[in-house]
Amino acid sequence: MAFERIAIVGAGAWGTALANALARAGRGVTLISRDRASADAIAQARESPRLRGRRIEDRVAIVAAGAEFLSAHDAILLAVPSQHLREVAGRMAPMLKPEIPLIACAKGIERGTHKFMTEVIRECAPAARPAILSGPSFAEEVARGLPAAVTLAAEDETLAAALARALGSATFRPYHSTDVRGAEIGGAAKNVLAIGAGIVTGRGLGASAAAALTTRGFAELFRFGRALGARPETLTGLSGLGDLILTCSSAQSRNFSLGIALGKGQAPAQASAATGLAEGAFTAVALVEMAREAGIEMPIATAVAAILDGSLTVDEAIENLLTRPFRKEG
Asked: Where are the beta strands (DSSP E) in the chain?
């Protein structure tokens, strides 16, 4: 399978970064923006308004959405927020070639349906072949060409390996997997836990508390993943533990930054407006609902969801966590 021509739907920070990475890998890349005015502005400036100061490689074509562009490519990356993926995939479905790989690049769970991104793709574009790209990677660093390693998962191993080769370069290294669910769970759950880590930092609770939260948060992620059939090596790999470590320790993460603002006393609406789109803020309620339905204990994720919906203050949530009964580690 040769994937020489690749389209990226979504000209935000992550879509732009991926476009640069694929251009450096020697692929023919088309970056598809939402409308003509947006596409023209980005093409003229050669940068996305979501990623200022990072020039888009010259070999990247920038266009508005249209059937002629989608049908001319061998694979498509969906670099749109998780809660918008259903709308975008559904609108694209009639324009797609049969069996074309449709790769979700968002890390989240759809609210209401509790569907993961490849499940949404399968429902909205049944003729496509779903895959997921996830792992520890900041858009600004990938756009610059700094080294990053990620997970690319598809149910068919031959497809996953071929896509990893097509997207990979000396500085952007996808490791392929067939554990689609594991890759999706790691990316979705770590965003929620990163908000918790940011709260600890914003509240000034210290490095020891931050390490404890990240470690116990990973225990929650692991329990949730194993209950839903994820493989241990995926959960402890790039798209699980690796991504958790990154987003729980850097203000480059919008989820971590949102948590810092909450920890400093900002109301959820005010903090969200200041930090921009943080996927974990939308995923938290779905993650906690799924855990509750499956009987999985996730106290940190539950506390984060309660802070976000205003049913607990930060101090009340911290007190609840610190007064939990002592127990065996695991």
From this structure: 5-9, 28-33, 60-64, 75-78, 101-104, 129-134, 148-153, 172-177
Helix (H, G, I), strand (E, B) or coil at 109: strand
Q: Which residues contact 79 (CB under 8 A, 6 or more apart)?
A: 8, 9, 10, 12, 14, 15, 18, 105, 106
Average pLDDT over residues 184-199: 97
**Of 137, 138, 242, 253, the residue nearest 199 (C-alpha):** 253
pLDDT tens string 199-256: 999 999 999 999 999 999 999 999 999 999 999 999 999 999 999 999 999 999 999 9
3-state secondary structure of 92: helix
Parallel, antiparallel or unpaired: strands 101-104 and 75-78: parallel
Sign of the CA dihedral 165, 169, 171, 172?
Answer: negative
Mean pLDDT, residues 61-66: 87
pLDDT digits (tens, 9 = 90+) for 120-144: 999 999 999 999 999 999 999 999 9
Task: Give tens-digit pLDDT for 298-315.
Answer: 999 999 999 999 999 999
Place of tokens 């990226």: 8
CA–CA separation, 213 vs 300, rounded Å? 8
CA 329, chain centre distance (Å): 29
The mean pLDDT value for 33-51 works out to 93
Q: Which of 114, 138, 304, 116 is nearest to 217 (CA)?
A: 304
Tell me which residues are annotated as active site.
Answer: 190
Q: Which amino acid is at 252?
A: Q
Q: Are 167 and 273 in contact (CB under 8 A)?
A: no
From the list 268, 253, 282, the residue with the least C-alpha distance to 83 is 282
Give residue 257's pLDDT: 97
Query: How big is the chain, counted in residues?
Result: 330
DSSP H or E segment with residue 243:
helix 243-247
